[in-house]
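Issue: copy button drops trailing tokens. Both records pasted manually instead:
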Amino acid sequence: MVGEYTFSGQGAAEIAASIEQAIGQGVLAPGALLPPHRELAAELAVNPNTVAAAYRRLRDRGVIETAGRRGSRVRQRPVTTVRDAIGPEVPPGVRDVSTGNPDIALLPPLGEALAEAAARHAAQPVLYGQAPLDAGLGGLARAAFDADGVPGGPVGLTAGALDAIERALVAHLRPGDAVAVEDPGWGSLFDLLPGLGLRPTPVAVDDEGPLPDQVEAALRKGVRALIVTGRGQNPTGACVSAARAGELRAVLQDYPKVLVIDDDHAYGLTELPLHPLAGSTRHWMFVRSTAKAYGPDLRLAVFTGDPVTADRVGGRYRLGPGWVSHLLQYTVAHLWRTQTLDIPAVAASYAARRDGLVQALADRGVAAHGRSSMNVWVPVPDETGAVTQLLQSGWAVAPGARFRLDSVPGIRITVSSLTVQDVPGLADAVTAAVRPRPAARFG
């Protein structure tokens, strides 16, 4: 019993469900200590091994964590509470620069593309048993991969980058395996890994991407996979340089069995060149999402990979969703074929605001980072204090806790809703909220 809540169940699954219900109702808060195995077993009149099995289920699913004799506790961020929920409410009148959403003024018009998709559907509706990948979209994706130096491999589709990453991890890893991830990094990925029963191993990043010595250290510890953002890294804006990619490939040569996943979610938002790690090991995936450049509701990602990985991911997808809607495929194919998105103009627009903010902060003695895409990362000594003071100054920023494992505190600012004229005022507010703190790396 915890407080007024009484756990229930006779089997491991029932007991685990009862504990999850208590977490969902707020009876068990993040960090709350669970009853010892024998104590709960006596209360429920079951074998202690049954309670141990229930706790093991919850631990594998990222709900609780176990620290030996110190007992089992609810994780600070259980999978039932996503990191996007971390942060203050935005009151009326406060400018929200925390969301990570693109500038809607830069999204391409979809009317013509959707009309063409509808016309193709009317002429020949897609029925069960047809090929899951539209040949036109597949050809465009493969040509773009080739242009960016991505190795040859089958092309497939998923409903977004995170969907592809999840399926690649499940195809090769098992609960308990460790995955090397960028830190600071993508909060949704940090949520996903415990939900799959996988253990994130943080790797520090700087403006050029993951640090090779930290990647090598993680590999020596036995990580089974490495996930790298080639450009537009969230939240730091890091972009993997040619030199850094070469260093990382050299490290990976000694670990051919590690799964390497390249995430190119910022495709269309930057003109900085891509230097993928794809092909450095036996199993790999390169995934490219349309959500940031073409709109978050256009849920489609193209991927390629080694034949085994591509076959496993594609085969499992066919057993679940079946395929990505051909209406979406036709829409994206039209956008890519007609080059509806003016990538140089989009990249320049984000760069003017992002680089302007980074420079304005530097002029005020505040270190900030943002080589590409739409975000600026500012390391701070007191994350809560900075977020609170900025809120009082009329700006809502994203607390770094959404994006950190072991790295230093920080705040993320999304420039999408800013104008160039907004930059000086925001820089003044950030400067007032944080102490200047130079940082050569983020970890």
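Record 2 (pasted manually too):
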Amino acid sequence: MGFVVLIVLMTTLVHYYLWRRLVRATTAPGPLRRALTWATVALGALIPVTLVGSHSDWGRFLVWPGFLWLAVMYYLAVFLVVLEVPRAVALAVLRRRAPARTVPVLVGAPEPPNEEPSTEEPKREAMNRRDFVARTAAAVAGAGALVTVGTGVRTALGDPLIERVSVALPGLDPRLGGLRLAVVSDIHLGPLTGLGHTERIVRMINGLQADVVAVVGDLVDGTVAELGPLARPLRSLESRHGAYFVTGNHEYYTANGPDEWVEELRDLGVRPLRNERVEITHAGAVLDLAGVDDVAGAAGGGGPDFERTFGGRDPGRSTVLLAHQPVQAVQAAKYGVDLQLSGHTHGGQMVPFNLIVPFQQPMVSGLGEVDGTQVYVTRGAGFWGPPVRVGAPPEITLLELRPGDRRKAG
């Protein structure tokens, strides 16, 4: 309920701002303004209704228009905010350049009667200047938002990029050099995705011929009853040492919780790692592959248990941890984890949202370090909410381990 209230409050404020800049500032009082005002109210109501009803039978027909409008609304607001300064400057320049009005006086002519000068004409000219600036800003914002969202839809629904990353782990057994992990996160099977979304991801992962497949959370946005058929292609994942899964926060948001998906994935041949580790034996050497539950599980008495996951392990072995959120590396570093693989951020999904992510997470995307533990954050292969990605294309990562000094992603 709190989430819904927050969404209603935010959409109300944003739509009021859009109304002032796109309707009130560009139209005169009358039928057109009233019609556009009611349209703004309807579009504002569409967003919370879509979020609430997206998983119900009655709300499914709202999903595409609702989420697309959410993206358009977002970029309209972004463009209009960016245009606030140019808009103010343009108005100031036009006022300064407006010619001063003078009344010619003939020498020797009788003085004109003492009448109040008319202000209608200057007011009309000032209004025309404001209208011109407001309508120009509205047109630029509208065109910019539509082009941005259109491009973002094509990116989000297109093939994920294959990011090839080499990570050097000090102390890695040389025999483990060249071990390749296919990493995918944030697939977000849901009301806007179809079977082809999963099939494409599985086909691309299999084409990498990885040694290990890691599915790092946020696989679904719904129950097994709703989305089970969309997950079935995961049965076809291919790798030398198996496919593994850890929960993300969205698994905890489903109506039945994460347990049913854990069992469903187990049946599909993808092994869940729930605060546990397994040994990956490769070329005669052993790597500890561990996984912890997402922090969202803590509200229900679960969540990550690092002591259970790493208690009693051989400190001489290199360790790779699957943990959905990058912030979990703060705890992982205390247990000497060499490398953590995470998702969650979507790389920001829609610029400039990437500027907000660092307030919650230590990393947005790519390879970095948190308290001495290397962390790779994938942008994810799907999307949440609007089927739009701007500045953060979907990704599947082929990560190769190397012994020796640390190197940045190439």
